[in-house]
Design brief:
This protein is an alpha/beta fold. The protein has eight helices and 15 strands.
Length: 255
């Protein structure tokens, strides 16, 4: 019996290694390729013809959805999304009977995914799986794709932070400080990139190096320079500069 061919696509080496380690002892599966970005994937994956792809959604430059949209394969593989993504995507995965792994996942959850892979390969033809995946991509494109959680690292531990818990965000070079109450969590990301991923109805740029959760704003106070002082519910004070003033004020006026 032929082994099930697996490809792993994730920009984080530790994430790829974790999946590879879990698969090492699985006799009916073999890894045929590992890729760290979307460009390499689109270039080499079609020639490998994998049966299953473990695909990270949030990758730089070309994300997981763009990879799927641009794959030049007649029969698409089963795709298992490996993600810390939002509830809209997860709802779509479940609707189309495609599995996903929500980071961080454990061996028990991974083994459940392997069972679903075997079931799907046994029950459905390649054409049926391709049709389901195409339907999924179409639905994802119609859904709002705003980030709801971020994955943070503390030593050897990895945990998820809900962005709805964040009061404000501050740039620190190529990192961000995510302020939650009196705590600040460091995330490797730029202000420009994170702003594109946040829900603009909730998070608003107030300064070239600051974004605020408008649900946390208690009061605005004007100063002598035409700027505003933003007072958060936590007591934290931030400055709303003139460059971004109208952007925030329009949110409160419905503009």
């Amino acid at each position: 019996m032929d082994k099930i061919k697996i490809a792993i696509i994730d920009d984080e080496p530790l994430a790829r290694k974790k999946i590879a380690n879990y698969l090492q002892k699985i006799e009916d599966m073999e890894i045929v390729g590992e890729f760290a970005n979307g460009k390499e994937t689109l270039l080499h994956l079609p020639s490998l013809q994998p049966d299953v792809v473990f695909l990270d959604i949030q990758m730089p430059e070309i994300d997981g959805f763009e990879v799927l949209q641009n794959l030049t394969m007649d029969i698409l593989p089963i795709v298992i999304f490996v993600t810390a993504y939002d509830q809209y995507a997860i709802s779509a995965f479940e609707h189309h009977a495609l599995d996903y792994l929500l980071k961080p996942f454990d061996l028990e959850r991974f083994e459940k995914t392997l069972r679903r892979i075997r079931e799907q390969l046994a029950q459905k033809t390649g054409a049926e799986l391709t049709q389901r995946l195409q339907q999924l991509v179409g639905e994802i494109q119609r859904q709002p794709r705003f980030l709801e959680r971020v994955m943070l690292k503390s030593g050897s531990d990895i945990y998820l932070l809900k962005l709805s818990d964040v009061d404000w965000i501050e740039a620190a070079g190529n990192y961000l400080n995510l302020h939650v109450g009196r705590k600040a969590h460091l995330l490797r990301e730029t202000m420009t990139n994170i702003e594109k991923k946040l829900d603009p109805a909730v998070f608003v740029r107030i300064h070239r190096s600051q974004i605020v959760n408008i649900e946390r704003i208690k009061k605005l106070q004007s100063d002598w320079h035409g700027d505003y002082i933003i007072l958060l519910e936590t007591g934290q004070q931030l400055t709303l500069t003139r460059t971004y003033r109208d952007n925030l004020l329009n949110r409160f006026s419905g503009g």
